[in-house]
Design brief:
The protein has 143 residues and is mainly alpha-helical. It has one domain. It contains six helices and no strands. Helix 2 crosses helix 3. The longest helix is centred in the middle third of the chain and has 21 residues. The protein is globular.
Amino acid sequence: MRLSHLPLRLTTGAFILNSGLNKRRLDAEGAAGLQAMAARVYPPASSMKPELFGKMLSYAEMSLGAALLAPFVPSRLAGVGLAFFSGSLFTIYLKTPGMTLADGIRPSQQGTVLAKDVWMLGIAGALILDRKGAVKRSGGAPS
């Protein structure tokens, strides 16, 4: 992990880990609401019991948060996990009625809750695309 990745990984990892920890005690109604949003985009999610869906979502968020916080997990690998997670949230945002304005991109008042998570997609891109050392093949200094 590069020093420049530390702020990206610490803030995002702590945020996602906290979200997963908070979902551990999600009640059936709350789990069903999250499941219904996910099922609009990922239909197989509807075949699960809401409580199981909530627990799996909680475990997935805690695992991703921990991976982002763990210095031994390569940044690109952590970035790929974050890309899948944030890409899923962004897809749910785009496909859920009422989340966007008429243009289908800009968030409505209700959509701001999900649209704000687009920052995680940007962080994932930075972690994936950042080249370690970027040394010229001729043996020159880093560019």
